[in-house]
Specification:
This protein is α+β, with helices and mostly antiparallel strands. The chain folds into 2 domains: about 170 residues, Aminopeptidase (3-Layer(aba) Sandwich); about 190 residues, Gcn5-related N-acetyltransferase (GNAT) (Aminopeptidase, 3-Layer(aba) Sandwich). It is built from 13 helices and 14 strands. Strands 1, 2, 3, 4, 5, 6, 7, 8, 9, 10, 11, 12, 13 and 14 form a 14-stranded mixed β-sheet that branches. The longest helix has 17 residues. The chain starts with a strand and ends with a strand.
Length: about 375
């Protein structure tokens, strides 16, 4: 018999977070989250996203043993302001038993119907700043800290239950030329800089980064406003994310471009790969987790491309060539030989064409699924 419980207390939500650890602890490709970060993400007293959203956290039990979990999410701004009658679901993990998946998804469906919504889509988080997409290819590739790892039966269960593909993303692994940026990239970057009177900004420390943080989030809102899963990031969320994520940033790994008036028009954030460090930390910063993460900032040969934002007025005008030139030179200085892109929509041909100048491979695909309520 399968029993579904809604978890509300702090102790219960710890069980919700730790279920993934029990399910995936022997999987060498899974990258564990930091448990305390996950719990903060689910705490309405800490995470300001709850001012516009609500979350219901469900755990499935079989013979008293936890066998699956899912978060059912309603984003009121998305529904009321954007006119998207969507029931979100995320943090979906389950044993290979379709009856467990069916029981969990039924809870998502019930909440969606109670709120007169029309369809459900997942896995997605509360907002664009959360993880999104179920892994459907690349199960034998190391995951990253900003994506969910999924077992092959997850997609099989949803498809058997009548879910259909909504959006699909691809992820590339790119080999960094040891000889530096190609002449073509350097020449083109120079032409774009001159044509639009642009300037590259180099940061020395975290405080200088924070001076441009608001502008970066403004560019995120402008860059991703047409995505189906996009909900504008509010000021209280910006303040929260600055505190939560900027502690991980290294100034050398941030590339920003300003116009002739000093206004930020593009940025890109890369980071040393924390995947193996997070595996060693196993969800805990103390007593040794911080040491693994700090070491990863300086001793690594792989980086991860996390986020890019470009003012719509400058999109498709070659600014990415400037960013890639700067990155290539910095990676060479640090001995980084590979970089992994963040998930990119499969039909985003303009971005993917940029990788043609480099040796690359698509090594992962992830997908959101949709079903009418």
């Amino acid at each position: 018999m399968i029993e579904i419980k809604e978890l509300t207390s702090s102790a219960q939500l710890q069980e919700f977070v730790k279920f993934q650890f029990n399910l995936l602890e022997d999987n060498e490709y899974w990258v564990p989250p930091i448990i305390s970060d996950e719990l903060e993400n689910f705490d309405p007293d800490i995470n300001p996203v709850f001012e516009q959203a609500e979350g219901h956290f469900f755990m499935a039990y079989q013979d008293g043993r936890p066998v699956g979990r899912v978060a059912a999410i309603i984003n009121r701004m998305e529904i009321e302001n954007q006119g998207k009658p969507k029931m979100r679901f995320g943090w979906f993990d389950v044993i290979d038993d379709i009856k467990v998946t069916e029981a969990l998804i039924e809870k998502v469906r019930e909440i969606g119907q109670q709120h007169d919504l029309e369809y459900m889509e997942g896995p997605v988080g509360f907002s664009i700043m959360d993880k999104a997409g179920m892994l459907v290819e690349g199960f034998d590739e190391l995951n990253t800290m900003i994506t969910w790892y999924s077992l092959p039966h997850y997609k099989e269960h949803l498809e058997q239950l009548g879910f259909e593909k909504e959006k699909e993303w691809v992820e590339f692994e790119i080999k960094i030329p040891e000889e530096g940026p190609t002449d073509k990239v350097k020449r083109f970057a120079g032409l774009i800089m001159e044509k639009y009177n642009l300037e590259v900004i180099h940061y020395k420390d975290k405080e200088e980064i924070l001076e441009h943080a608001e502008a970066m989030f403004d560019l995120i809102n402008k860059t991703y406003q047409d995505l189906s899963t996009f909900v504008p990031i509010q000021q209280e969320e910006i303040d929260y994310y600055k505190e939560k994520y900027f502690r991980y940033l290294h100034p050398d790994f941030i590339n920003c471009i300003a116009d002739e008036d000093g206004k930020l028009v593009a940025f890109a954030i890369t980071m040393p790969s924390f995947a193996k460090a997070l595996q060693k930390a196993h969800g805990k910063l103390l007593p040794f987790g911080w040491a693994h993460l700090l070491k990863a900032r300086y001793f690594h040969d792989k980086a991860a491309f996390y986020l890019i934002g470009i003012d719509p007025k400058y999109q498709n005008k070659g600014l990415t060539s400037i960013i890639f030139k700067e990155m290539n030179e910095m990676f060479n200085d640090r001995g980084i030989t590979r970089v992994e892109t963040n998930p990119e929509l499969e039909d985003n041909e303009s971005i993917q064409a940029l990788w043609n100048s480099y040796e690359n491979r698509i090594h992962k695909r992830r997908r959101t699924y949709r079903k009418a309520l």
